[in-house]
Amino acid sequence: MVRPMALSDVELAGRFVAIVYDLTDGQPGRFRRIDDCAKRVGIKRGADLAQAVAAAEAAGFLVVHVGEQLVRLTSKGREAARG
Question: Each residue of 24-47: pLDDT tens digit?
Fold first, then answer.
């Protein structure tokens, strides 16, 4: 049985940012639940999710809500998602 290759930080972050963009209709300031975004993009492992969120946040593409498991895109993140 062949195991799928692990995705890089950039690939995981890109997929995550793209789904946040889709789920917020590209509108600024709209938060989405992290677990909902992960489910929609097919990120199942907690380590992959943490990697995706950390990489996207470090790149300045999203902001993680302090008190809840929510994220929103920055203007840089929206631009990146639009391609």
Answer: 999 999 999 999 999 999 999 999
**Complete edge-to-edge strand list for the sheet that includes strand 70-73:** 32-33, 70-73, 62-64
- C-alpha 30/C-alpha 43 separation (Å) is 21
Q: What are phi and psi of 73, to 5 degrees?
A: -80, 145
Burial class from Cβ neighbours inside 10 Å (0-12, 13-18, 19+) for residue 75 reads exposed
The domain made up of 9-82 has a fold known as Arc Repressor Mutant, subunit A (1.10.10)
Give the start-to-end residue ranges of the domains of the chain.
9-82
